[in-house]
Structure formats: C-alpha cells, structure tokens
Amino acid sequence: MDMHTVVVGTSGTSAADVVAVARDGARVALSPDALATLAHAREAVDALAAKPEPVYGVSTGFGALATRHIGPELRTQLQRNIVRSHAAGMGPRVEREVVRALMFLRLKTLCSGYTGVRPEVAQTVADVLNAGITPVVHEYGSLGCSGDLAPLSHCALALMGEGDAEGPDGTVRPAAELLAEHGITPVELREKEGLALLNGTDGMLGMLVMALADLDRLYTTADITAALTLEALLGTDRVLAPELHAVRPHPGQAASAANMAAVLAGSGLVGGHQDDAPRVQDAYSVRCAPQVAGAGRDTLAHARLVAERELAAAVDNPLVIDGRVESNGNFHGAPVAYVLDFVAIAVADLASIAERRTDRLLDKNRSHGLPPFLADDPGVDSGLMIAQYTQAALVSELKRLAVPASADSIPSSAMQEDHVSMGWSAARKLRTAVDALARVLAVELYAATRAVELRAGLTPAPASAAVIAALRAAGVEGPGPDRVLAPDLALTTEFVRSGRPVEAAEQHTGPLA
User: Fold this and answer.
1) Quick check: is 56 catalytic?
2) Of 53, 92, 290, 382, whose CB count within 10 A is highest?
C-alpha cells in the first residue's frame, strides 16, 4: 500500500484525500485535535446517558421504535443489535474503492466531534483501513436517507468482529480472523456508537467524489476525440475562436473550445479540403461540441461545489452540540442525490453527441470522401460498422441511466421515514454511466484516429499525431483489413481510462482544461 498518510481532523476532508484513501491505499491518521474533540464530546454523551430522561440514540430505540426507553443494562445490546439488524444488504459485492471511501468518510464525521463516539471507535476505523481490510458491502440496502444504513452497517459489523471482509490479499474471510491477524481488537459499542456508525451520506458522497475525478479526465478526452473527428471530417476550426464563445460566457463552453483549438493547432486537415459542395458550416455534432461538453463541465462544477460542502459537513442523527444531543434531518441525501442524477444526464448527452460524430465518420454520404465504415475493401470488409452498434447500445443504456433516481421516494420504517432520497441508487447508476462513457469515447477515438490516418497526403495537427502514435504504441492497430475488433476496443478503452490521450496531446498543447 502507498505510504502516503492522510490526517483526519475536525474540519472535514478533501476530495483528493478521499481518492487517495479509496483508490491509492493511503494510510489514515487521527490528528491530536480530533482525538481531544472526540473525548470531550463523549463526556457529554456519558453525562446524558446517566440521566433518567430518555435521549434519542442514547437511551431509546430507533426510528419508529424511538418511543421505548432503554435501561442501562440493555444499552450495549441495543447498539450491537442496531448494527446486526441493519446489516441487511443483498446482491453483488460493492467495489473495494467504494467501501474504503464509505469508511473513510464515516471516519471524517466521527472525528468532527458531533457524533459522541469514543476515540477508540474512530481509531479502530482507521486501523481497519490501514490494514487493508474491506468489509463485504452489498449493492442493495440503502434508500439514501437516515444515511446509507445497510452499507454502513456491514462496515460497522466488521468493526465488531462479525460478518465477512476482504483481506489485503483479496480473499474474503470472517472479519474476526482478519482483525486478529492484524492485532485489531473488535469494538464493543456503547451508547449512541452503533447509530453513529450508520447514519451518513458517506457511500453516495464517496461515489460522487470518485465519479467527478474520473469525469474530469473523460471530459478533456472528449474534447480531444471531438477535435480528431473534426479533423477527419475536414471540418472548420473557425467555430472555436474565443471571441465567439465570449459572447455566451459559460465557462465550461470556453474551456472545451479552447481545448479543441489547442489540439487542432497546426492541422493540415481543417477547413480547406472540402472536395464536395462547399460547406458553410459543419453538422451540430461537430460544430456544437464545445457547447455540449461545456454544459457538462459546468454541471460537474456545480456537483463539485455540493461535494465540497458535504465533505465539510458532519452528517449524523442525533448530533452532539454544546453538551446537548439534538435530533435533526441532516442525513437526508437530497443535495447529493440531485447532483448525482444531474451529472448522469450530462454524461448521457456527452456520449450521445460522441456517438453521432462516430456515425458521421462511418457514413460515406456524410464523411466527405472517407471509405464506407472506414473499411479497407468495402463490401469484402465491414470496417467499423459493428463498433458503432456497440457504441449505440451503450448510449441507449446511458439514456436509461439518466432517468433520475432522486425523483422517486418510497416510505419506510412504519412511515416514520416517509420521504427518502434514493441517493445511493443515483450513485450506483452514475458509476455505471461513467464506465459506459469511457467505452463510448473509446469507440470515437478508435474511429477518428483511423479516419485521420486514411486522409493520405494531409498532415494532422502535432497534438493529434501524438495521440494517434500513443494509441498505436499501446497495441491498437490502424487501418487495414477486417480483424476481430473486441481486443482493439478493450485496449482503447483502457487507453482512455488511464488518461493517456490527454498526456499525449499535452506534449504539444501544454496543460488542457
């Protein structure tokens, strides 16, 4: 594991820290300030627990069962029971990086001092993360309100030495065995601690943060693929002039146009080789690429603002404030759920315009002199015909994934929890959408690079040539007779996901937005 250490304090965390812990295996340490704040807040919980008056989460049942007062002799059992009973997930296992993000973000809230847990509970969460132990969390179980309850419960279960977890070697084993091997003592939960481990938007927030990190790279890649397609279609780069975009001052649009212009600088293909009827303007999928990608960039900026606010938040119910324990509704996932759905819409539309550009490259009636389907010997060879089918299937799936989960709500807990966010579901479908977008852009890149190479005698822009050379160096073959396309498409998808198109282009453009 990476020996980089993320220090968790009382004031939240950053998106970069979430990615470092979730994906890169960064170690976690608790700041002295966080440990002191945890101890101070716990004193307030202990004082309230000693009083005869019922306090929600400390000496009562939960949800619709909150009317029952629980005596001191049953409170340890109460906290243990809420974890066991709420660990009700079903379906496939959630990815390791999602579980690590989930646990790290719950630790962030614990360290805020608003949850009232003992310092040793927070330290155990850090120890489990540092040991590379990943609790088994399931796909279904969260309604995105009262937090991501079932997913967080499966994490808390492992802290208690119960349930299953994946060890650092990738093998799933009983959590108790893994804790023992790493010298971690299972926690025995006291008043409020079981509830505090379960009550947050951590899963949906972690998935949002990682999706935004991926999409930053994919949106820049989309500008590169659009530029390559414009070149291959002998289009005009005059529509990318900054003064045209300044009169409609959306920052994302200006950034995308600038990226495309930088990639196309020095191209010998753009604008001057229209061998059929002169084109006054290119088709929307080419001409409006900065507007569509730019609108998506602005959507990401809004989502990033919401994520930053949530990363600075302490999400729990009840909260320990000034020695009081107060019920609240901050666990409701609506702010995160809305932007998860909003981003999924932008992703679907970016994929849609990329697919339309790809189809234009393959259609001899619209490709301005390119062979049908970019085939070597059309008729004998089918070229990239079915690659576009695959791309179209992905785009169709993305349109379904763009249907908002947050527009739905289903009541739970005997109508006590009668409105929920469905933010976890929004996050899960966004992860699927991000994966599909990478594949869609890979197909456009695969087609556009071949098409540029088929423009014999014309010289592409230096940045375009660098991207083509990098793709070929990655093992993806150029134009030629038909071959099995699946391996090339898989290699191109990995090329896109790794950010190598951006790295190659930036050798000539400098940093792209």
Assistant:
1) yes
2) 290
